[in-house]
Specification:
Radius of gyration: 29 Å
Strand content: 15-25%
Strand order of the largest sheet: 1-6-5-4-2-3
Bound molecules: beta-D-glucopyranose
Shape: globular
Distance between the termini: 52 Å
Length: 945
């Protein structure tokens, strides 16, 4: 019978994504594809440390194996690597191993390069037909990129390598193994024949790249971002990185919306750009205007000599009107099937009026707080990228129409100047500034007017959640049974690494206390995301290509297929919710977490997220769209306020999330860390209640980011301000170490008593959580109803391979005590240390670690250590970056009966261990003798001693 969880099929799909995400920017003289028999000189040390993803929580997937470009070229028998150069690298790399730095947020952005002299390059050129140069970069959570050499720019060694290689090779192919776009000015300096962004492609990444290099796959990736000449050209440059307020002065003019309107000449590679090995003719057939949409029919013909796929992109130019508009806005896109030479396909792109409307936050059109289509000409363009797009049709709206009337929400509380287009003397657009309209409504007042009705408490009436699911009781009657204490416990998620759910996962929520469990509320499990499952226990998982690579495919069906596999893997690991997709916008190219996100454009981001969600739903699980909303930098991410106009908030940031909710059916949302326009997002009533739930009809759960803060108006953020979060309808605080003990010292019960939050608001969040859990696979497993897929998966052999390491010996003395030689324990990220513990007595033992986090990691760095006894997880210790003082942590092990193996797995670098001692807590010898004597007596068939 075919396997359900078919790792090979999963890998094939991931490999297709990695290949389809490759964006070819330059290919002179058909340098690519490489013919069979090509001997390649492979330059660049990233061949030894292919970056499968960026760093931080989104990169901590413990993979079975990673195939980088080198491994994939070696596997492909059509190619050979130039042996002389490879031997040089092999020798050099032994003395220059990968430098992980200090772990979380402190891994270097780049690794030292082997110096490439003109002689080395010339020697390689004598033997090889083509050169491939790999440039690698990383960045991630808590660590933005910088406009420095080794981050945005090339290092001196990389420049020297490119100069030497391009000096002697006529065919130099430069591959960028990066999570963010980077400076491209070197292309003009060294003029390599071919250049491609290969991004960070997950564990199958290298294979996907070689599929493109070989021509097995036509490069069909297109840029999800605009690449400008200088990082200073991006209009957010002057505000990016502020540690107090990041003000969005560029307003809606982010990415190509800015460049195409004001600064075309600064663009090196336009949004949507990417080359194929073949050519396509994109011809608009017709455009039909109906009452509330336009429909474009476009024919695409492969006019070249090789099979390929094209991404047809439709852009809108709306009339400038009174609001001012970007010169182009992505209005729709469609990827063709594989077209053989000469073959055609007609694609249909429908653009609804709401997607052509602008948000009037100032009342300039007389429709204040509404989506409006202003009177004038609407021109639609189609083509292969934003610059290439040609007019496909136009229509005129005789008068301004209100498409959707809303109410003001999320407007700024501080005054600032925002960008609007003005015409210069030549009729071109130039940026002008106007004051962004300020908030006029009070969210608190609106909340007071819309308070939910309290459900009178009844005490325990014996109703369990299954009664609700099966229609024997109402959710209201169920919730009525919960005491205030129960309600306060239910809104606290537990983690990281809660023993109540799959080991090593980010969080547990729902039935986290005995009483809640007694009411039949199961314990849901969530885990990072987005590029594969993060389990700090050391259990392996599949590493997916990063968000930016996936967005570069512009292929919704493919993403859906990939995330159907991911969904099955979640299911197999008993995880209900992935903490992803990440969908913040690439507002600035240096944001460290851009790799986790999709694009500078909200339509592309929203469609990608919706596709991933549909894939996971097809397996009964889901993802958490994050970070809601507007976190566009890592510097000071826990407290920096994002200030933007309501128009920018709605047209840019909320749009992608809205698509994920409306088209992708999202049922879980993670708010972000910092405040937006005065309120921390976890306590932002406008964001979470009025817009998300009120306008979009979202009925799922909202959770905080890990250890996030909430605030009351005008007050600083506070991790314990649960009341503010519940008022906003952010249902879950993530995470506390113990919900029952209120380990986070939150203000739930005190605020209920003080009346600053109502019981009804807690009951509303309780209902949101319960409703969500009833839809999740954990509910089926808990009740045993409808858990066939879980049982089928459980019956398949587990292909997880544990990573074994050198053994450290530890012999306990007669009293059951001993110390492990901690100098032999390798605390490097991803490393496992095995300790063999020889005992005298069978019994219960306790481990005592003295450990700490390294200095300077940032207070919210997560540094987990998981401890297995033989193959079972015995416990997990997660220090944060704030735990820099030595501390003793004890862990009591399950009974052991012989020499046992301790397996210490370090999912992240940054932990220091000073001591690890083992002592016996209880000998079981006497007990075992007593039991075996009893058995002996009781069984007359056994011979007497
Ligand atoms: C990140 C989230 C992540 C969470 C759990 C936070 O630091 O911002 O994206 O899901 O940690 O690891």
């Amino acid at each position: 019978m075919a396997k359900l969880y078919d790792l090979e099929a999963y890998a094939r799909c991931a490999r297709r994504c990695a290949a389809d995400g490759v964006v070819l920017l330059k290919n002179d003289g058909e340098a690519l594809p490489l013919a069979a028999g090509t001997c390649v000189a492979l330059f660049g040390r990233s061949q030894y440390n292919y970056y499968k993803s960026g760093t931080g929580s989104g990169g901590m997937v413990n993979t079975r194996s990673v195939a980088g470009v080198k491994e994939a070229l070696e596997e492909d028998l059509r190619f050979t690597l130039e042996p002389g150069l490879s031997a040089l690298y092999d020798a050099w790399i032994r003395d220059h191993p990968f430098d992980p730095g200090q772990g979380w947020a402190h891994e270097p952005w780049f690794q030292e390069e082997m110096p490439i002299t003109a002689e080395i390059a010339a020697k390689a050129a004598q033997a090889a037909d083509a050169a491939i140069v790999l440039i690698g970069r990383t960045a991630g959570e808590d660590q933005d990129n910088r406009d420095d050499k080794g981050s945005w720019r090339l290092t001196d060694a990389e420049e020297a390598m490119l100069a030497a290689v391009t000096g002697v090779f006529s065919r130099t192919v430069v591959l960028l193994n990066v999570g963010n776009i980077m400076d491209m000015s070197w292309v003009a300096r060294y003029d390599p024949a071919a250049v491609a962004y290969i991004w960070q492609g997950g564990q199958e990444g290298g294979r996907g790249v070689v599929d493109v290099l070989s021509g097995d796959v036509d490069p069909a990736g297109r840029l999800p971002d605009t690449i400008a000449a200088s990082v200073q050209d991006y209009p957010s440059a002057s505000n990016f990185g502020s540690l107090t307020r990041n003000i969005q002065q560029e307003d809606i003019y982010v990415g190509y919306r800015y460049f195409e309107t004001f600064a075309k000449e600064k663009v090196l590679y336009p949004f949507g750009f990417g080359l194929s090995y073949t050519d396509f003719a994109i011809t608009p057939e017709n455009m039909v205007r109906s009452d509330n949409a336009v429909e474009l029919r476009i024919s695409v013909t492969n006019t070249g000599a090789r099979a390929g796929r094209q991404v047809v992109q439709a852009y809108l130019e709306a009339p400038q009107g009174l609001l001012g508009k970007p010169a182009r806005t992505l209005a729709g896109f469609r990827k063709t099937r594989l077209l053989q030479p000469g073959a055609s396909e007609t694609v249909v792109i429908t653009v609804p009026d709401i997607a052509m409307a602008s948000y009037d936050d100032a009342g300039k059109t007389s429709f204040r707080s509404a989506w409006v289509m202003e009177a004038g000409d609407y021109v639609l363009y189609v083509g292969a990228d934003v610059r290439d797009a040609r007019e496909a049709g136009r229509f005129t709206l005789p008068e301004t129409r209100c498409i959707r009337q809303l109410e003001e929400a999320l407007a700024p509380a501080v005054s600032f100047a925002r960008m609007v287009p003005a015409r210069d003397g030549k009729g071109d657009f130039t940026p002008a500034y106007e004051t962004a309209p300020l908030a006029s409504l009070s969210p608190q007042e609106l909340r007071r007017q819309a308070l939910p009705e309290e459900i009178p408490q009844t005490g325990d009436r014996g109703i369990v959640l299954r009664d609700v699911a099966e229609g024997r009781a109402s959710l209201r009657d169920f919730i009525a049974q919960l005491t205030d204490e129960d309600l306060a416990c239910l809104v606290r998620g537990e983690g990281m690494g809660s023993p109540k759910v799959t080991p090593g996962c980010g969080g547990a929520f729902g039935g986290v206390t005995d009483r809640l469990l007694g009411f039949g509320i199961p314990i849901g499990c969530c885990s990072d995301g987005p590029s594969g499952i993060r389990m700090d226990s050391g259990r392996t998982a599949f590493a997916l290509p990063i968000g930016t690579c996936l967005a570069s495919t512009w292929d919704e069906e493919l993403l859906q297929e990939l995330f159907a596999w991911e969904g099955l893997e979640l299911r197999k690991n008993r995880i209900d919710v992935l903490l992803g997709p990440g969908m913040n916008l690439h507002r600035h190219p240096l944001n460290g977490r851009n790799f986790e996100y999709f694009s500078e454009d909200p339509l592309l981001s929203g469609r990608c997220a919706a596709a991933e969600l549909r894939g996971m739903y097809s397996r009964g699980v889901t993802g958490t769209i994050k970070h809601f909303a507007m976190n566009t930098q890592e510097a000071g991410r826990h407290t920096v306020e994002h200030v933007a106009s309501e128009r920018a908030v709605r047209e840019l940031y909320l749009r992608g999330f809205e698509i994920a909710v409306r088209e992708g059916g999202a049922t879980a949302v993670m708010t972000t860390y910092g405040p937006v326009n005065g309120f921390y997002t976890s306590s932002n009533y406008d964001l979470v209640t009025r817009v998300l739930r009120g306008e979009w009809g979202f009925d799922g759960i909202v959770m905080t980011d890990w250890w996030a803060r909430g605030n009351d108006e005008g007050c600083p953020g506070d991790r314990g301000n649960m009341a503010a979060m519940i008022r906003a309808q952010n249902d879950l605080y993530m995470v506390a170490s113990s919900s029952a003990d209120n380990s986070n010292a939150d203000n739930s019960l005190a605020s209920l008593t003080a009346g600053t939050v109502t019981r009804a608001e807690y009951q509303r969040s309780a209902a949101n959580i319960c409703r969500f859990l009833m839809r999740m696979p954990v509910f089926a497993r808990f009740t045993g109803v409808g858990d066939e897929l879980d049982r089928a998966l459980a019956s398949e052999p587990d292909e997880e391979d544990l990573v074994f390491a050198e053994m450290i010996d530890c012999r306990l003395n007669k009293n059951g005590c001993g110390a492990v030689d901690v100098s032999a324990v390798d605390t490097t990220r991803g490393k496992t240390s095995m300790v063999s513990v020889a005992i005298h007595d069978r019994g219960i033992y306790r481990l005592r670690f003295v450990l700490r986090a390294k200095q300077g990691l940032g207070s919210l760095a997560q540094i987990p250590l998981s401890v297995h006894v033989n193959r079972e997880l015995a416990g997990q210790i997660t220090l944060t970056g704030a735990d820099t003082d030595w501390r003793a942590v004890e862990l009591t092990l399950p009974p052991v009966f012989a020499t046992f193996f301790l397996r210490l797995y370090f999912a992240q670098a940054g932990l220091e261990i000073r001591e690890l001692t083992i002592e016996m807590v209880q000998s079981l010898e006497a007990e075992i003798r007593r039991i075996s004597a009893g058995v002996h007596d009781a069984d007359p068939s056994l011979p007497a001693d």
